[in-house]
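QA checklist item 7 of 12: single-chain prediction sanity check.
[x] sequence parsed
[x] length recorded as 141
[x] structure emitted
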Amino acid sequence: MTRLGVSKKKKSPRATELSQLKKELQSVSEQLESCKRELAEGRERETATSEILREIASSPTDIQPVLDVVVECAAKLCAANDAVLLRLEGDSLRPSAHCGPMPTLRGPGQQLSIGRGTVHGRAIIERKTIHIEDIATEIEN
């Protein structure tokens, strides 16, 4: 009698062990990369904090240079092309610092109303951070 079929080879214990070691090495490598990213992010935050503190020390009576550095550091930390700092005054917002190419209100007396139709208005009304990946897309909608 002839037996037809395909037989499966069993993995040798050594091959199974090597496969398991490979999976463990990959997991450890991923953890190492995650730690490296976290360390780099921590260094970036420390650098930003240092820049802000240095500006505070050099401008003890003038807040504007400090606000400018805060906005620049925020943009760097968020990998953003643009950042704006708005100050709440009564029931409106006034731009206090800006960095980047997007247009913003500038100059004395320029104010923005607070409403759900804008990202900053929603953030204030909802009292929470609102993250928008691409503000240009948000503005178009």
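[x] summary fact logged: Residues 107 and 141 are 27 Å apart (CA to CA).
[ ] second reviewer sign-off
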